[in-house]
Amino acid sequence: MTAVGVWWSPWREDGDSLILHVDLRPDAGREERAFAILDDHERARWNRFMVKGARRQFALCRAALRINLCDRLGCSNRELSFGYLKHGKPFARVNGVPSGANFNLSHSGRHGLVGFTKRDGLGVDLEVRVPGRDFDGIGSSVYGPRERLALSAAAGREKVDLFYRLWSLKEALIKALGTGFSLSPSRFEVPGPMIEGGRSGVFRFPHLPSDPFWLEDLGEPRFAAARACRLTPEDRHA
Ligand SMILES: CC(C)(COP(=O)(O)OP(=O)(O)OC[C@H]1O[C@@H](n2cnc3c(N)ncnc32)[C@H](O)[C@@H]1OP(=O)(O)O)[C@@H](O)C(=O)NCCC(=O)NCCS
């Protein structure tokens, strides 16, 4: 597929990591091309989505993931398939053999992110900010005490931004770990300086103190976003 016809573009590139932005605006031509790339299992999943927007998000992101993984792994689309860990985190197989590729993706509204890295344990999250929700009410069940305090002290636009910033940071972490929401997000808090607006920091789950992650706020005017990635022993001694 030529670069002209694609619906994704590099968004963050540093060292051995890349995040693509995926354009999820309605586009029948793109959706048809994306659908053609999916395997039978993915098409069955696509069929089970009741809402058009969810179908579009899934097909466009999954096809972008497939094409870019094939490039990186040097395999054909037919040779690539996905397996799923206990809580649904996908991993890539080439001819049925786990490939070791590290990737993660997220979609919200008309935006998607697909992240790749050479390291293990990657989580990315994107949240389009929707004003007018009961942020303190939702926060009381998903945020920890310091996070709730900061949220209740914020007002207006600042509250909306903080709510989604915290949400994307916490979701990137549970996606990096692979547990999804089977681990309640109220059971851990993002590092204090990041609650206050810091853009990056080292994070440790309270129940896994010897397994640190590098956490980054990648939010921008269009959406809140975050990346979490496990730190290797080499990183820790660098
Ligand atoms: C993972 C999860 C947090 C994603 O939430 P979301 O806001 O709906 O979705 P996002 O757009 O940010 O990310 C979706 C992508 O994350 C990936 N993903 C799914 N499960 C994941 C997991 N456990 N860890 C990391 N990534 C995961 C997939 O690639 C998925 O994309 P796809 O649906 O196109 O395949 C949520 O789906 C979840 O908690 N799932 C776990 C469910 C679970 O624990 N079930 C246990 C039953 S016993």
Distance between the termini: 40 Å
Which class do the helix and strand fractions yield? alpha+beta
Number of domains: 2
Describe the largest sheet. Answer: 4 strands, antiparallel
- Number of β-strand runs: 11
Give the C-level CATH assignment of the largest domain.
Alpha Beta
Q: Provide mean pLDDT, rounded.
A: 95
- Numbering strands along the chain, what is their spatial order in the largest sheet? 1-2-7-6
Task: List its traits.
238 residues; Ribosomal Protein L22, Chain A; globular; binds coenzyme A
Notes on the structure:
The chain has 8 helices and 11 strands. The longest helix has 22 residues, at 52-73. The relative contact order is 0.12. Helix 1 (28-37) crosses helix 3 (52-73), helix 4 packs antiparallel against helix 5 (145-153) and helix 5 (145-153) packs antiparallel against helix 6. The radius of gyration is 18 Å and the shape is globular. It is an alpha+beta fold and 238 residues long. Helix content is 37%, strand content 26%. The chain folds into 2 domains: 8-118, 4'-phosphopantetheinyl transferase domain (Ribosomal Protein L22, Chain A, Alpha-Beta Complex); 125-237, Ribosomal Protein L22, Chain A (Alpha-Beta Complex). It has helices spanning 28-37, 40-48, 52-73, 135-142, 145-153, 156-177, 192-195, 233-237; strands at 8-14, 17-23, 80-84, 90-94, 97-98, 102-108, 111-117, 122-127, 200-203, 213-217, 224-230. The strands form 3 sheets. Strands 1-2-7-6 form a 4-stranded antiparallel β-sheet. The protein has a 4-stranded antiparallel β-sheet with strand order 8-11-10-9. Strands 3-4-5 form a 3-stranded antiparallel β-sheet.
